[in-house]
Inverse folding.
């Protein structure tokens, strides 16, 4: 029997301050597909948006809680501070020109671990980057009218965690999740899992003098790691408990099952399953086009629909 494995990143969840602006940026400017429009399980008056590839494949899913008017957060230690997307070779000039034309704040292309990347921010100030990976990425991006498949984002390349001290977090990655240290550049340490070819990289940035981050608009809420199913997931729950860390019971999130724990550096980690996926309540062709509610809120649908901000979808 194969050892259970963490299959890289499943999804990353961030906070926004305005639902329509968030939707417009990620579907129109970046060209992602909205694969699910639902609500926050703990706050049904707030949307929960999921963006990804055609079917919301794990490793492509960026999700948002758009809390209207929440105010600006602060990026800092104890949180994920950059989300990296893989893009095809030769596509960065297109993206740089697009960002310039659409007034998206961005920096000059640079190099990290031998890979060229383009840093930019979303309308809330969330830090993102487009990276051309060393290894060919065979995933198929979601194409739109003006973003063809040969330049579209393919899903996650990596995420960066900023920490006062990396060692305790690194031990979670290596001893529990099966990652290994790949390389170091200055105070940036790159960890990778060999279990999957993509969405396999976590960078740890050690900043001993850094200030703690504050979760609000423009910051990441948590990072979810991927497992094949809930049997593997529960094996990891035992591993996490065995290291003396607190972890939640299994929680049904409708599209996957979740466990949550805070790693020693302060970042909220999730372990999420591939099953059952986003087509469990909508056909593939209609993903993201209907407001889907958790079962416990279905009886409150009319009230919830009235309380949510209007959203124009294109």
């Amino acid at each position: 029997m194969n050892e259970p494995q963490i299959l890289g990143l499943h999804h990353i969840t961030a906070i926004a301050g305005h639902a329509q602006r968030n939707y417009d940026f990620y579907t129109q400017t970046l060209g992602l597909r909205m694969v699910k429009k639902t609500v926050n399980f703990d706050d049904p008056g707030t949307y929960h948006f999921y963006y990804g590839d055609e079917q919301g494949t794990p490793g492509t899913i960026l999700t948002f809680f758009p809390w209207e008017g929440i105010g600006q957060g602060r990026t800092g230690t104890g949180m994920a501070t950059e989300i990296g997307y893989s893009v095809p070779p030769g596509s960065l000039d297109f993206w740089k020109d697009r960002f310039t034309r659409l007034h998206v704040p961005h920096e000059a292309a640079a190099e990290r671990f031998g890979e060229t990347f383009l840093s930019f921010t979303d309308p809330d100030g969330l830090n993102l980057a487009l990276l051309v990976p060393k290894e060919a990425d065979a995933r198929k991006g979601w194409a739109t009218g003006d973003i063809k498949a040969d330049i579209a984002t393919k899903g996650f390349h990596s995420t960066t965690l900023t920490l006062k001290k990396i060692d305790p977090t690194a031990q979670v990655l290596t001893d529990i999740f099966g990652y290994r240290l790949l390389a170091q550049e200055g105070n940036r340490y790159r960890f990778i899992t060999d279990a999957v070819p993509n969405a396999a990289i976590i960078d740890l940035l050690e900043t001993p003098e850094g200030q703690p981050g504050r979760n609000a608009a423009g910051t990441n809420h948590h990072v979810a790691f991927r497992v094949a199913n809930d049997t593997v997931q529960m094996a990891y729950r035992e591993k996490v408990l065995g290291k003396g860390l607190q972890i939640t019971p299994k929680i049904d999130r409708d599209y996957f099952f979740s466990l949550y724990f805070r790693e020693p550096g302060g970042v909220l980690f999730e372990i999420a399953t591939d099953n059952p996926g986003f087509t469990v309540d909508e056909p593939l062709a209609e993903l993201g086009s209907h407001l889907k509610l958790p079962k416990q809120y279905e009886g409150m649908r009319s009230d919830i629909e009235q309380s949510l901000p209007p959203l124009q979808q294109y």
Observations:
- The chain has a mean pLDDT of 97.
- Residues 9-307 form a domain with the 2,3-Dihydroxybiphenyl 1,2-Dioxygenase; domain 1 fold (CATH 3.10.180.10).
